[in-house]
Design a protein that fits this description.
75% of the residues lie in helices and 0% in strands. By secondary structure, the protein is mainly alpha-helical.
Length: 71
Amino acid sequence: MGTTNDEESDEFPPEKRLEASNTRLIKAGIATIPDMETLQECVAYENAHQNRTQILRRLKWKAEELREDEK
C-alpha cells in the first residue's frame, strides 16, 4: 500500500498539474507539490513539452521552498 505522498503523486501527475486551462490552476498545482520527487517529475515534463520559462521559474521557487522545509 502506498503512502499519502504516493497517492497524491498518482492522483496529480505532471500533466494535470501543468496543463491546466488557466494560470491559477497551474499555480495551485505547483503549490501542492508534496516532495522533491514529484517536483523533479514536473520539471522533466515541462522541459519535454512546453518549456515555459515562467512555469520553470515557479518550479525552481518550489524546489527552494522544499529544501528549506527539509532543514
